Amino acid sequence: MNPPMAPPRYPMTRRGAERLREELQQLKGVERPRIVAAIAEARAHGDLRENAEYHAAREQQSFVEGRIREIEERLSHADVIDLRDREPDGRVVFGATVRVEDTDRHNRIRYEIVGVDESDLEQGRLSHTSPLARALIGREEGDVVEVVVPGGVLHLEIIEVCYE
């Protein structure tokens, strides 16, 4: 008989875990009671088969309850990585903020290497599983990294690595 498999671990930054906790608090403390009140009000209107407000509120309730379960699962299996106590050595690691220069276009870009749930490219937060983050992890200040992206090849020089 095989031993039971351990649940998956979800690496995330301290800030990412805080954001999830805040979202969970908002869902449980604000959204859930608002939806329960909307369902009660819709029920008071009578026939539920043709009550659009009731069905919309039930759909919202289903979404919110699913999201609550998802966040609770993620947090219960989170591997929170806090770099505040890490000695700066210039290496790119999970949770680090990296400033790079595109050597072809001569523009500087800031990325933070984060967990999958935290990634937001518009905010400069790269999932540690992305090709760009994988190319950066383990490298250090001064290294030039070549990354194949859908638009071609990027040549990025690592200018600075911070552990915030």
What does this protein structure show overall?
It is a single chain. By secondary structure, the protein is α/β, with parallel strands linked by helices. It has two domains: 72 residues, Orthogonal Bundle (Helix Hairpins); 66 residues, Roll (Chitinase A, domain 3). A hairpin with a 4-residue loop joins strand 3 and strand 4. The longest helix has 31 residues.
Features:
164 residues; alpha/beta; Helix Hairpins; Chitinase A, domain 3; 2 domains; 5-stranded mixed sheet; two-stranded parallel sheet; 3 helices
According to CATH, what is the topology of the largest domain? Helix Hairpins
Structure summary, number of beta strands: 7
| Residue windows where pLDDT falls under 50 for at least 5 positions | none
Residue fraction in strands? 25-35%
Short description:
The protein is built from three helices and seven strands. The protein is of the alpha/beta class.
What does the secondary structure layout of this molecule look like, with pairings?
Elements: E1 10-13, H1 14-44, H2 52-76, E2 78-81, E3 97-102, E4 107-114, E5 125-127, H3 131-136, E6 144-149, E7 152-162
Parallel strand pairs: 1-2, 4-5
Antiparallel strand pairs: 3-4, 3-7, 6-7
Helix pairs in contact: 1-2
